[in-house]
Amino acid sequence: MMIDETALKEVWNKEVIRGRAANGQLPFFEVWEEIGSTNDRAAVLAKGGAPDFCLVTADKQTAGKGRRGRVWESPAGSSLSMSLILRPRVPLDTLSQLTILGGIAVKRCLEKAGTAPRIKWPNDIRLMDRKVCGILAETALSGNCAAYTILGIGINIRRAAYAEDVAPLAISLEEAGAAVSREELMAKISGEMMDLTAKWEQAGDLSFIRDEYEASMEWKGEICRVISADGSFTEGKVLGINTDGTLRFLTNEGEKAVGAGEVSLRR
Ligand code: BTN
Q1: Which of 52, 64, 74, 125 could form a cystine bridge with 79, CB 3.0-4.6 A?
Q2: Is 57 in the pocket of ligand 1 (CB under 6 A)?
Q3: Residues 6+ apart with CB under 8 A from 237
Q4: Hey, whose CA ends up nearest to atom 9 of ligand 1?
Q5: Residue 96: CB partners within 8 Å, gap ≥ 6?
Q6: pLDDT in tens, 166-198
Q7: Beta-carbon neighbour count of residue 30 at 10 Å?
């Protein structure tokens, strides 16, 4: 089923435009039936000057990108693929915190849809111990300023959204019993991101959502492994997050602030 542009426009006006007059540049959305990657298309729009909070969505991606160079499956009708253009006015070294905010935005919307999402640091969203949503943030720099960040969000809507080989690790909203339209969900996530980034620009860090994040944090207090990009791993207890979004991890050598890595439960 295609994404319904009329239905999206209706919720978009309510959740994102919110009656603001069109004297500045208002965020717009683009709907595609099929595209390589919504993140790549959003980057093209951003380079052309598209404003904050413009959205690109597609019913199907043929070259969806996951984190760490992985492929992200997003077949027609069963997945939600969205990319938001973000232009926050914050120091460069704080930009990685956007992925944490993205996780909070999705978590809030999935809670409103009647599910009990958990966030696996930094930003996988899980339901019933399986992954329902992944987030990929890509930043382009101009000089030593951020030109823009593309926040890409992929959500499994129906079982067909993922291949059989990842089936034990993945779940869809339909399987979790959540009945919510893609149009509504993506407009609401965009609206949440507007609220969150405004508060974040003021606060200067993630202190204002830290408690909320930790309350939904997968494996908080448990012994886990953090695997680095080179395959090496460290074991320790997940304590929470710092206000810069790094993971608070208690190892034999004391507490560490982990900036990147894949967390898994030690079994
Ligand atoms: C992950 O590996 O967990 C991140 C997956 C991110 C997928 C989304 S789908 C919309 C956007 N476009 C892409 O090519 N990737 C992101």
Answers
A1: 74
A2: no
A3: 221, 222, 223, 224, 249, 250
A4: 154
A5: 137, 245, 259
A6: 888 999 999 999 989 999 999 999 999 999 999
A7: 17
Among all chains, which residue has been given the structure tokens 């992985």? 70
**Which of these CATH numbers, 2.30.140.10, 3.40.50.300, 2.30.30.100, 3.30.70.330, describes 219-265?**
2.30.30.100
For the Cβ of 261 lying below 6 angstroms from any atom of ligand 1, the answer is no
How close are the terminal C-alpha atoms of the chain, in Å? 40
Residue ranges per domain, the chain?
5-214, 219-265
* pTM for the whole structure: 0.96
DSSP 65: B
The residues, any chain, with a CB within 8 Å of residue 266's CB and separated by 6 or more, are 222, 223, 224, 225, 235
Find the 127 Cα to ligand 1 centroid distance in Å: 18
How many angstroms is it from 73 CA to the middle of ligand 1? 9
- The rounded distance, in Å, linking the Cα atoms of 136 and 42 is 13
Segment holding 262, helix H or strand E: strand 262-265
Fold of 5-214: BirA Bifunctional Protein; domain 2 (3.30.930)
Q: Where are the alpha helices (DSSP H) in the chain?
A: 5-12, 38-47, 97-112, 182-203, 210-215
**Each residue's pLDDT tens digit, 39-70:** 999 999 999 999 999 999 999 999 999 998 89
Nearest CA to ligand 1 atom 7: 154
**Nearest of 140, 115, 145, 143 to residue 127 by alpha carbon:** 115
Q: Report the distance separating Cα 143 and Cα 166, nearest Å.
A: 40
Helix (H, G, I), strand (E, B) or coil at 209: helix
Residue 171 Cβ inside 6 Å of ligand 1? The answer reads: no
